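Quick one: structure tokens for this chain, please?
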Amino acid sequence: MTLLILGIAIWSAAHLLPALAAGQRNELVARIGEPRYKLVFTIVILTSLGLMITGWKEADYVTVYQAATSLRVVTLLLMLISMLLFVVSATKNNLRRRLRHPQMIAVIIWSVAHLLSNGDAASLVLFGGLGVWAAIEIIVINRRDGQWQKPGQQPRKNDITTIAVGLAAFVALLLLHPWISGVNLIQVSAGLTGSSPTTSTGSSMLVATYGPAALSNIGILRLYPP
């Protein structure tokens, strides 16, 4: 559990500190150059992911609360919303004129969705920790950037395309989830099996660790701070 906590702490600090200390960040970039700065940042983020993977894999299963099976459908709906918001953040559309931080909101919703269906200590630390990070990130960026300048109007077809891509991404998640984590989300949500969506055995390790990264920036990694 220590490595898991350390990984989340490094991930959070690496994203928050550049926004909290923008002047020092700019000085560092000027001194070592932006390519090297990006390289260092990438190494730090990958290190934090490695710690989260290892920590999750080694964590003992300790029940903190009993997740209600009746909320599994709610979890699925929240995941749909988070995937849509993720795509919204990565494309040009009019929905971005209503939401200043669709990426971070997607991470928060993703976090809540998993906490509704997972009541063990490792899940609480991982999903809860990343959800808290996303909420703090929103506050920090708002204070740094000040008044929000809404993006320009986009063609209506962009909104339709965004929603279609988001739905397709969600369907892909449902289809790939059994292969990634060993859990069939459709069966679990329909109550066809009593298994929990995630366990501490490491079977859902990829979802748990790469999920937040995917929500943060175009399915890869948020390797560069805003």
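The chain has one domain: 2-216.
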